[in-house]
Design goal:
about 120 residues; alpha+beta; Ubiquitin-like (UB roll); 5-stranded mixed sheet; two-stranded antiparallel sheet; 4 helices; 7 strands; about 25% helix; globular
Length: about 120
């Protein structure tokens, strides 16, 4: 059972292989959306691009599903480590930063702690 380490929230969440990242974050009441996303998001079809996450690492290169055509089109000018949570399927344990575009106090310290701690499989 994969574990998703949510850095900003300081939580590790177990999920099933094949689970959708957006649905997991919403189920766990994690802060996936900023103000714009909270006011109006597309409900998970990849059109509003408000569910950005940054992938900081994982137990394997295939921890998440490959980029979808929607992501390739919508994330052209974004960092390569960014994904749309609504388009991501979790295959194995991974480290995720929600709302990477928003400032995070002590970001270096939090990210270092999250990436240096072992991830369960």
């Amino acid at each position: 059972m994969p574990t998703i380490r949510f850095v900003r929230e300081g939580r590790d969440v177990k999920c099933s292989v094949g689970a959708n990242l957006r649905q997991i974050a919403l189920r766990e009441d994690l802060g996936l959306y900023g103000l714009k996303g909270n006011l109006g998001n597309c409900g998970g079809c990849g059109q509003c691009i408000t569910c950005f996450v940054e992938v900081l690492g994982g137990n394997s290169p295939d921890a998440l599903s490959p980029l979808t055509e929607v992501e390739l089109a919508k994330l052209k000018r974004r960092p390569k480590s960014w994904r749309l949570a609504c388009q991501v399927i979790v295959n194995s344990s991974v480290i995720i930063l929600t709302r990477p575009q928003a400032p995070l106090s002590n970001s270096r310290k939090l990210i270092a702690a999250a990436t240096n701690a072992p991830l369960p499989d």
